[in-house]
Amino acid sequence: MAQDLTQNRPGRAIALKLCAVFLFMVMAAIIKSVSGEVPPGEAVFFRSLCAMPIIALWLWQRGQLREGLIPSNLMGHVWRGVFGTTAMGLTFAGLGLLPLPEVTAIGYASPMFTVLFAAVLLGEKVRIFRLSAVALGLVGVMIVMAPRLSVGSDDLSQAATLGAIMVLVASILRALVQIHVRRLVKTDHTAAIVFYFSATATCLALLSAPIGWVVDHPSFVWVWPDRSVFIWLVTAGLVGGVAQIMVTSSYRFGGASMLAPFDYASMIFASIIGYVAFSEVPTGPIILGATLVIAGGVLIIWRERQLGLDRSKSKPNMPPSGAP
Q1: Residue 316 — pLDDT band, cuts 50, 70, 90?
Q2: pTM of the model
Q3: Chain centre distance of CA 212
């Protein structure tokens, strides 16, 4: 029987989760700062490649490197990589066109779409309470996006509209990623899911280089970054790798339902970093919309927790099966 490596240490779990959320926002700010110098595909490549050594070292230190290198469902990892890499690329592109708090607020739509996809693709029962929470969240997303949907005649307005649409599509793709992860955890070790996403994202991002040569458009063509941009790209990858490890480690010390609401601290961090680094101030629609999206997300989390408690009460007491 495998040893259960989890511990009930909520303080440490929350600290790790908040640090991870903050580092992800720092990574996003770095990507935003170099978005005018390198295309999104190249940024995804550096983000994924530079994170791999950190992840591999972490898995080796935990004695899980073997599990991380032996996938059971290879095509599942490929599809997870396709959806996740595309979502990352669209988000990175959106960061170059929109304020950081706005990108963050639109990204909160992912849990809403996850609930809908879980019902359609996994056959999960979704009752009126969760559907109402999803509707509330999607109304919030539309409020955030409304100013961008009234396309103006100037190039700046059109670019912002395109950026909002790309970030929304990225949130839909991230929801599909969650569905694939739910399937993968039934057959593959968590270490494999973490490692192979970085590996597939690196390879898929590298494939965007020849696309840029064919399309011959600045948004796709790879460039040789100068020293400062190269350092920032490497830093983004390292920061993203550390954040990925922290968010994974946080679930060793606390339950998912307890930690999920702390994802919304990203709006606080995004607002502070956006103001300090880019002089961005969240607008009224962003604040109102984000509030509704967060409210919908918290209601979904609360309902999931209640359903989890009900299911645990209905099951007979069983000895722990150990970590997967």
Answers
A1: very low
A2: 0.87
A3: 25
